[in-house]
Specification:
4 helices, 28% strand, alpha+beta, Nuclear Transport Factor 2, Chain: A, 5-stranded antiparallel beta sheet
Length: 141
């Protein structure tokens, strides 16, 4: 007597359904991740534009906040507003690479990192400088 092929068909169907679900979830996750990165960038720029240094500092990565305070020899809330950061831009182009992201607006390039408490700005006020690394007004050490 030949064993039934029904269990194998069910197993293949279940595996295919699982892979499809993972693929669809991954696509939705990418859009959510890109949106979260863009929102942090926009909130950071809006806080700076509004003169709310405390709100801007809450969106900085810990090492970036520490470096800013050390370099300026002032509290972060004051130091971030003293930097020559461009105003918020409307157009947003987001590129995410694992736990790092780059957001280009019409006026600025901002780098972010993923931390336990969410996406945080690691560098802002950045300008490309040819083949050399970006030059940034605010960056971590």
């Amino acid at each position: 007597m030949r064993p039934s092929s029904a269990p194998r068909r069910c197993a293949r169907w279940a595996a295919s359904a699982t892979l499809l679900a993972l693929a669809l979830t991954g696509c939705g996750g990418d859009a959510d991740r890109d949106r979260a990165v863009a929102q942090v960038t926009q909130r950071f720029q809006a806080a700076v534009d509004a003169g709310d240094g405390a709100a801007a500092c809450r969106l900085l990565a810990p090492a970036t906040r520490d470096a800013l305070e050390r370099d300026a020899q002032a509290p972060c809330a004051d130091a971030v507003l003293d930097e020559d950061l461009p105003p918020a831009g409307d157009d947003v182009d987001t590129e995410v690479y694992g736990t790092a992201a780059q957001v280009r607006t019409g006026t600025d390039t901002v780098f972010l990192g993923r931390f336990d408490h969410g996406w945080r700005v690691t560098a802002a006020g950045c300008e490309a400088s040819g083949d050399a690394p970006y030059r940034c007004a605010v960056e971590g050490g």
